[in-house]
């Protein structure tokens, strides 16, 4: 201590002025800087103060992309790195992944609709990845109204004049959409049933009979016959030609008896008698 300093040493001796602030302790991010002062008489005694300083504020940058999950089912983890702008060691962030036990695979294709019209259902499935459980969902489909058959027409005539023929009737389909197969069913637009038109019989005329020549009152008379050849046969056919009358009596089994009157025979020489 020199003479000048000793003059100031005493009970009230103080400190020197504060030094300037030192440079920041960090070149990046948060640090501190210091200033000091010493005692006038006791130089080994010093005081110091610190204050924070910031150079290029330290921060962690935006995190990177998450890495793949360690497993596809619940219980796995994924990580990502976060870099520091001041060269600090990067941080690693870890998070659980695939936490949903209901994680499913892709849906299957929709099934064929249960109906072509009038509202049906279709379904599809997907399988749970971890448990293997199969889950299904359904949806409505083909809600367009179905085509409807109109009423049947009346039966037409039998297609045959004798024997077995066919009766037919028809109906029309209305509604539905263009291009669809309309009014699908076991019975379509035309319905047919068998009809019986009766036996097919061969009717043919017999040859002419001999003339009745008993007497000269009326002209001679000839008769010929035809009948149902397929179910009946002729029986007891007689001709009576007494003088003055001309009456033909025909008797057949299971047939009506037909008579040709004398007046008819006067108007024509030949009489044809047909049995039904």
UniProtKB/TrEMBL annotation:
Gene3D superfamilies the UniProt entry points to: Thrombospondin type-1 (TSP1) repeat (2.20.100.10)
InterPro entries with a match to the protein in the record: Compl_asym_regulator, TSP1_rpt, TSP1_rpt_sf
UniProt cross-references to PROSITE patterns, sorted A to Z: TSP1
UniProt keyword Transit peptide, yes or no: no
Keywords attached to this entry: Disulfide bond, Repeat
Keyword Repeat: yes
Name of the protein in question: Uncharacterized protein
SMART domains per the UniProt record, alphabetical: TSP1
């Amino acid at each position: 201590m020199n003479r000048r300093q000793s003059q100031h040493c005493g009970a009230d001796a103080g400190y020197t002025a504060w030094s300037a602030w030192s440079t920041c302790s960090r070149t990046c991010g948060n640090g501190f800087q210091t200033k000091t002062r010493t005692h006038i008489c006791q130089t080994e005694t010093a005081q110091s103060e610190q204050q924070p300083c910031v150079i290029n504020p330290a921060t962690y940058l935006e995190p990177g992309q998450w890495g793949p999950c360690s497993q596809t089912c619940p219980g796995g983890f994924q990580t990502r790195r976060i870099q520091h702008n001041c060269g600090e060691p990067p941080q690693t962030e870890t998070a659980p992944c695939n936490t949903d036990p209901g994680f499913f695979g892709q849906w299957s294709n929709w099934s064929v609709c249960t109906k072509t019209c009038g509202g049906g259902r279709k379904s599809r499935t997907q399988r749970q990845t971890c448990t293997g459980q199969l889950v299904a969902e359904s949806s409505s489909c083909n809600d367009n109204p179905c085509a409807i058959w109109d009423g049947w027409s009346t039966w037409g005539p039998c297609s045959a004049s004798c024997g077995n023929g066919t009766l037919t009737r028809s109906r029309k389909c209305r509604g539905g959409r263009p291009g669809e197969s309309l009014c699908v069913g076991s019975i379509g637009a035309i319905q047919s049933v068998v009809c019986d038109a009766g036996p097919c019989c061969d009717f043919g005329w017999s040859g002419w009979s001999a003339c009745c020549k008993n007497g000269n009152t009326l002209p001679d008379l000839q008769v010929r016959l035809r009948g149902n050849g397929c179910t009946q046969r002729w029986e007891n056919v007689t001709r009576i030609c007494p003088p003055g009358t001309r009456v033909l009596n025909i008797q057949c089994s299971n047939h009506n008896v037909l008579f040709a009157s004398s007046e008819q025979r006067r108007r024509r020489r030949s009489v044809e008698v047909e049995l039904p």
